[in-house]
Amino acid sequence: MLPILYSYRRCPYAMRARLAINVVDITVEIREISLRDKPAHLLQVSPKGTVPVLILQNDIVIEQSLDIMFWALQQYDPQDWLDADFGKMQTLITENDTHFKQVLDRYKYPERHPQLTQTHYRQQGEIFLQRLEVLLNQHIYLLKDTASLADMAIFPFVRQFAAVDLTWFESSKYPKLQNWLNALTHSVLFERVMEKQPTYLA
Ligand SMILES: N[C@@H](CCC(=O)N[C@@H](CS)C(=O)NCC(=O)O)C(=O)O
Question: Which one is the CATH code of 4-78+189-193: 2.40.50.180, 1.10.10.10, 3.40.30.10, 3.40.50.720?
């Protein structure tokens, strides 16, 4: 039996898990779920009910996307994603997963957060984009000239942010960030992890 990855194609957390699993070339059974109708087995092994969740052959359950990335890359790290300043990677990913993700949700769904305008949420998100642009002025990727865990953990979220208003993003003042996102989203690896899967029916 293969390890099982409960996943959702468009979820940025699930994307980062699939990126790491794919780069290491680990074969897993991908179970593409419907978030509105989660399989009972998923909820049984991981009652918090989010994806991604990885279930190993020895029944160990890994239920955080970053932990899945580490689990994969600790076995083999063919592109040296872990070879970067660990503290810097951690700080950037934490900023992405907390503040930036919160602003992203508000920017994407301003009607659910009518306290402030969509433009305001976008401007809040730009604080993180600016920070990434500064880093990308120093290296081709966030922390060095090749990709690290930080790039792979963060770009699926920046992609979502950009997609809210592509015209704005493409004419925005972040040329390095645009190139970075373009390279990552057009990579063979990303195309592979975005291949469509049939929905798993429990
Ligand atoms: N901290 C979790 C967050 C995962 C997460 O929030 N995933 C979303 C989808 S992008 C989810 O499953 N939400 C549950 C739902 O929408 O019912 C991780 O890093 O894996």
Answer: 3.40.30.10
